Amino acid sequence: MEFSYHIEGGDFSKAGLASSEVKKILKQLNVSASVIKRVVVALYEAEVNVVAHAYEGDVRVDIAPERVVVVVEDRGPGIPDIPLAMQEGYSTASAAVREMGFGAGMGLPNMRKNSDELNIESEVGKGTKVTMLTRFNP
Amino acid sequence: MTVQELTERLGLSVCSGSEGLGREIKGGYTSDLLSDVMGHAKEGDVWVTLQTHKNIMAIASLKDLAAIVLVKGRVPEEDTAAESEEEGIPILSAKEETFEITGRLYEALKAEQTV
Q1: Which of A118, A135, B27, B58 is the most exposed place for a label (fewest CB within 10 A)?
Q2: Three-state secondary structure of chain B
Q3: What pLDDT does B39 receive?
């Protein structure tokens, strides 16, 4: 089963829409509440990253009986130093974004904690592709 | 304790989402950093914050929080309130600042032995 969603950069009012849809779908499929929470937390953080840093992005969600794979691919500035970006507390968010309570440097760490496999590919000046896999029966 | 009971006990005003006043409170969390709440708040928590924009509802909904308490008399933005109505997750407003209302919330939940 596959679903896709588009994300506009800079539009915070719509951040969380894909997560909310995916939550509904996984609930209908009787996926356990604890797994749903992990998937939506990870996806929400990825959505916010696209809104806060990129021009636009696309979410693709692929659901199989044993796992869900979420791919978030954006066109944006890219991440020059991924290990640094993965450090809790490190953020390049603007002051305006921080004032809204984003940019705590916890987005990528939250994504790592809430997925079984996290893969980040990024090219500076082009964009970033984040792939997250979560198993239904860990 | 339900959200309704908490509202009465702490003298909070209900800004939106009154349909959800029967929700059961299991605990509380105080933070203005959205990722912190996303990572650490638990289902059924009451969330104390000064943020009023729409993303607080996305978090409350994704994390199945019981209610949001805004501090210092703040009220939700229009689209935030609309989302609260739709989700049936109440947004409450406290006159007190964060430190004080968190303390009172903790006392109230402790008396019920939920924290």
Answers
A1: A135
A2: CEHHHHHHHHCCEEEECHHHCCCECCEEEECCCHHHHHHHCCCCEEEEECCCCCHHHHHHHHCCCCEEEECCCCCCCHHHHHHHHHHCCCEEECCCCHHHHHHHHHHHHHHCCCC
A3: 92
Q: What is the rounded average pLDDT of the residues A109-130?
A: 97
Q: Residues of B with CB below 8 A from A107's CB?
A: 35
In this structure, which topology does domain B3-111 adopt according to CATH?
3.40.1390
In this structure, what CATH number is given to the domain that contains residue A119?
A: 3.30.565.10
Give the residue ranges of chain B where pLDDT is below 70.
114-115
Contacting residues of A for B39, CB less than 8 Å apart = 41, 106, 109-110, 113
Confidence of residue A132 (pLDDT cuts 50, 70, 90): very high
| Contact state of A12 with B55 under an 8 Å Cβ cutoff | yes
- A102 touches B at CB < 8 Å: yes
